[in-house]
Amino acid sequence: MPGIGIIGTGWGARIQVPAFRSAGLNVVALVGSQAAKTAQIAGELGVPWHGENWRDLIAHPQVDVVSIVTPPALHCEMTLAALEAGKHVVCEKPTALDAGEADMMLKAALAHPDLFTLIDHELRFLPAMRHARDLIAQGRIGTVRHAELRSVNSSRSDLKRPWNWWSDALQGGGVLGAIGSHQIDLLRYLIGDEVSAASGTTHTFVNERSDATGQARPVTADDYMAATLRFVHGASAVIMATTVATHDEPNSVTIYGSAGALRFFDGKLWHNPGSGFVDVTPPHSRSFPAGIVGDFPQGTVYLGAALVAALAGDVRALDPAATFADGLASQRVLDAIRAGAGR
């Protein structure tokens, strides 16, 4: 089994460890910034090696793939080090702090063509998304005219939730990078086109949180964003994401064309040829371990399976993946939105 090392004890431990294991990857190492917490999590999950120095994980002889699940401010440095050590890389989104760093990462990836370098846009691997892309390419909704993507959740609505890197713009926190990057990449993937112009707004509704010591600290990262995108071939899109709603809603993607529409909502894909929406969701081809529920966790299982296949020689298994070139393209859009919003 290919060995993977995970840098990060949040999403990396909670979702990636069980998802990647179920796909056939051997999770051999885990690193976190807090030694005691990392040791406890590694013990609970049965990860054989743990530490707090990410460079030690990269050097681990059984680690073939490095999964970087850290604040974006660390992505570039960690990626360059992993590639230099001859390790495949799966990097969390957003790609980096800005397009300059993303460009450095792409150049490093191109200098190591024998290594897989992916941005963790796992929704690309869901059967429903791959089917949606095929339907659009086949002209089943005609020419794409416009799209609307919404992400509404309450994950940061609790005012008692402590300040952490997610509250800090300098570390790459905020909903634009966390969710907007997914929305931008997904649109590029589904309609097969590039963003030619982007504008939008970001806002911080919760301006202050207490850190782990109880000290009040300013929140500089956005918890709400909305943006309008224009694509090279004429399509437009509106994307919106919030983490401070009072309730959660399923993520939604609706793409309208000259001959119909497609909608992804609550895990299902719907096709409207002009006479009403019909469920066209393809069945899942994989089973999921306990706790792996929802679009992103399930997409992580499919991503892991693609990595296993690619490492075994089937490089086409990673065809849906977001490359570092995709990461740079999306980062440029994020930068344009931030610039227009005065961030």
TrEMBL record:
Q: Does the keyword Oxidoreductase apply?
A: yes
Residue ranges of domain GFO/IDH/MocA-like oxidoreductase in the record: 129-263
- The domain of life is Bacteria
Q: Which UniProt keywords apply?
A: Oxidoreductase
Give an example GO molecular function: oxidoreductase activity
Keyword Repressor in the entry? The reply is no
Start and end of every Gfo/Idh/MocA-like oxidoreductase N-terminal domain? Answer: 4-112
Protein name according to UniProt: Oxidoreductase domain protein
**Record organism:** Oscillochloris trichoides DG-6
